[in-house]
Amino acid sequence: MRSPYGFEIQENCINCPVRGQRQFCNVSSAALEQLQSSKSTSVYPAGTLLYIEGQAPRGVFILCNGRAKLYTSSRQGKVIILKVAVPGEVLGVEAALSNREHDETAELLESCQVNFMTTKDFMKYIGENTEAALKTAGQLTADCRAAQEGIRCLGLSGSVEEKLARLLLGWASGAAAQQGRFKVPYKHEEIAQMIGSTRETVTRILGNLKRKNVIDIKGATVILKDPDRLKELAGA
Amino acid sequence: MRSPYGFEIQENCINCPVRGQRQFCNVSSAALEQLQSSKSTSVYPAGTLLYIEGQAPRGVFILCNGRAKLYTSSRQGKVIILKVAVPGEVLGVEAALSNREHDETAELLESCQVNFMTTKDFMKYIGENTEAALKTAGQLTADCRAAQEGIRCLGLSGSVEEKLARLLLGWASGAAAQQGRFKVPYKHEEIAQMIGSTRETVTRILGNLKRKNVIDIKGATVILKDPDRLKELAGA
DNA sequence: TGCTCTACGTGACCACCGTCACGGCATTTC
DNA sequence: GAAATGCCGTGACGGTGGTCACGTAGAGCA
């Protein structure tokens, strides 16, 4: 099915071509049938809020493509990005499982296809398929590790430069990077929100790193010119 | 069975008197039989390290009583406490499930009875008992929420006073608190490690709060004298 | 050409808090 | 009793980085 969003809509999980590469969807056919029959598919534009901090959970969202940022904010309007979810992740599981309100907001960074399951259907699905329960546990495990890495970054770093260096190294070892070159699809303000700092400071420190010949920046692409020095700065 | 540790050792999960109150152990009899037959019981003194950051996982640890602190540290020796586990929690699940090395250290704060299961037995146990898989997911959910709360505290707070206020409010709403009075079983240094600060600053700020008549401190007991003011300071 | 909007760059200021240093008090150990 | 040890209290100092203010660059549009 064509869509005005620039990607194909895949309504049928059973013959989804990328299912095998997806953490949550890669299950055996029995479970898959149930997944397919209890989910509903939607497509939303960038900026859509799947759920909002403080809302009671309605269900869980499976990200079929695109990215979503999960963040919380303080009364004063300060925002911190908890993680950026990638295709194949389930969002809102913690709220559904604990039956408590969402403690983060999920916002689509691009236009995305999203599959939705009500809490009831989701509980039924994982209650009846051990495989699905284990996939869910796997998702939660990854979330935990990511959150702990976040705490490590925020709590153990002495300076913003250190946090930023850690973040850059994380991206450099990610999937989309090659030979120390990678695209940064974030604004300085968003980067600041990931490391608990401010837009100005991020701008300044990136400038410093460039001046010190540790990195180079061409548009949205970052090139690591001195990865060892960067690792030192990250406190490793 | 008596022990030199000041509590009764409970080797048999099936007739454990407090099992019903424990998050992980409160399962039906079929699962319980399997849990009982595949775990082994030990008692360790305070300060014991159940596992260490960087170690390959051997299995999971069920905390029967007492508390354990989970922390990571940087090369420079700076420590941050990720959470304090209470009885009925399973420790080391993330490493076991993801089959990657532990990314935290688990240290007993008191002498504790601990039940151990090898990774293999644990995987078998949760693979064969959906109930156990869901308990595990529940544990992971709680861990995630705790970690996210940690990120919120570290990342959204502008000042150490704010973080400390949040921490105090968290304790005040905990189980062991009543009418704004609660015991703090931590040293200033440990408190500092929870909020990513230093021993001196914690001492100073607690002193300030006392001077400003927001709290009062009698030995290890904290009394909230002005909870509303404290909430303001916490940025709520 | 002029207007608007968003993102980035940069300078000045100063509060907060990390670091170092020392002293006081309680408990333990010989 | 003396010494040692662990935890807490407090003063002085200096740097980091948050805040405010304003300038620049590029894109979109009439």
What is this structure, in a nutshell?
Helix content of chain A is 40%, strand content 21%.
What does this structure look like?
Two copies of one chain form a homodimer. The first copy, chain A, is of the alpha+beta class and 236 residues long. Helix content of chain A is 40%, strand content 21%. The first copy, chain A, has eight helices and eleven strands. In chain A, strands 1-8-3-6 form a four-stranded antiparallel sheet. In chain A, strand 4 and strand 5 (79-85) form a beta hairpin. The radius of gyration of chain A is 19 Å and the shape is elongated. Chain A starts with 28 loop residues before the first helix and ends with a helix. The model of chain A has no long low-confidence stretch (mean pLDDT 90). The A-B interface holds A 72-76, 78, 80, 82, 93-94, 97-98, 103-104, 126-128, 130, 133-134, 136-138, 140-145, 147-152, 154-156, 158, 195-196, 235-236 and B 72-76, 78, 80, 82, 93-94, 97-98, 103-104, 126-128, 130, 133-134, 136-138, 140-145, 147-152, 154-156, 158, 196, 235-236. The structure holds a DNA duplex (30 and 30 nucleotides).
What's the topology here?
2 copies of one chain form a homodimer.
Chain A: H1 29-38, E1 40-44, E2 49-51, E3 59-63, E4 68-73, E5 79-85, E6 90-91, H2 93-98, E7 105-108, E8 112-118, H3 119-128, H4 130-156, H5 160-172, E9 181-183, H6 188-195, H7 199-211, E10 215-218, E11 221-224, H8 227-233
Antiparallel strand pairs in A: 1-8, 2-7, 3-6, 3-8, 4-5, 4-7, 9-11, 10-11
The structure holds a DNA duplex (30 and 30 nucleotides).
